[in-house]
Amino acid sequence: xxxxxxxxxxxxxxxxxxxxxxxxxxxxxxxxxxxxxxxxxxxxxxxxxxxxxxxxxxxxxxxxxxxxxxxxxxxxxxxxxxxxxxxxxxxxxxxxxxxxxxxxxxxxxxxxxxxxxxxxxxxxxxxxxxxxxxxxxxxxxxxxxxxxxxxxxxxxxxxxxxxxxxxxxxxxxxxxxxxxxxxxxxxxxxxxxxxxxxxxxxxxxxxxxxxxxxxxxxxxxxxxxxxxxxxxxxxxxxxxxxxxxxxxxxxxxxxxxxxxxxxxxxxxxxxxxxxxxxxxxxxxxxxxxxxxxxxxxxxxxxxxxxxxxxxxxxxxxxxxxxxxxxxxxxxxxxxxxxxxxxxxxxxxxxxxxxxxxxxxxxxxxxxx
Length: 368
Prior knowledge:
By secondary structure, the chain is mainly alpha-helical. It is 74% helix and 3% strand. A two-stranded antiparallel sheet has the order 1-2.
């Protein structure tokens, strides 16, 4: 820019000097409609020079203020981005530490970076669910993009929106190899929505792709069969052999709870012969009626192992359901509390209460 100005100045000086050398000032006439501008070449050169300098200063000023603006906006933009990142980081650590109040506090003043907005809503929804605020959780989930919503069907499920969770999982479930978590959540959704026929079919088709532990399968089937006591046997027969291993105990418990202990008596007698005393006690503790043959079989086993806690609990629970609370209380007294199982507690408490042994009931309640 400076070079251009110098060249223009040199040209202007040359033009003015030429006329001065010949003692002729010369003039410049500019006429446009009714406007006429007339000046000597020297005066015009000076005016042109001043105009050029003025334009140069204006350009430099514009550049200066533009750079200043860019620097200031960049500074504040960077500061906002840092605060957004810090809020996101704090909320993430708070989620890992189950600090729900801190999760909400982190996002009160600053949102997460724009590319992580869906994650922010997911964290807030999870936090709200853990605090029992289902309506708030649904609002956060609804604020997520459709693609992101399909990634958190379990949160929809926890918000009592099982139907929405199933809708979101329809597409991934149609794939050849859906993810284990998607299949597991689909199982849960079908159970919550009480779509048992479809659940049994899906269990047969997809159970090998789920990585649940034996304990998780048993908890799942406990819920399933307790919801389906009248039809439990029909559903149990439809399960694949690999799942019956996990489903048998919950199934027998539901049968015992529904007053069908005589139907499951052969299975319990087999367990007794195999020495599966803990499994037998888990089933009998859910019963609401007794069985004489089963009682005799347990007594026979107790003669061989008089101190076995599971066998004693079986006998006590059967005495309880037969209404012999005094006998049940005496047997519960003989069980070593270090081997106590929480499944026996409700019957033991009622036995103590019925026999007015309130101190023992209190001590057992504390142990529970």
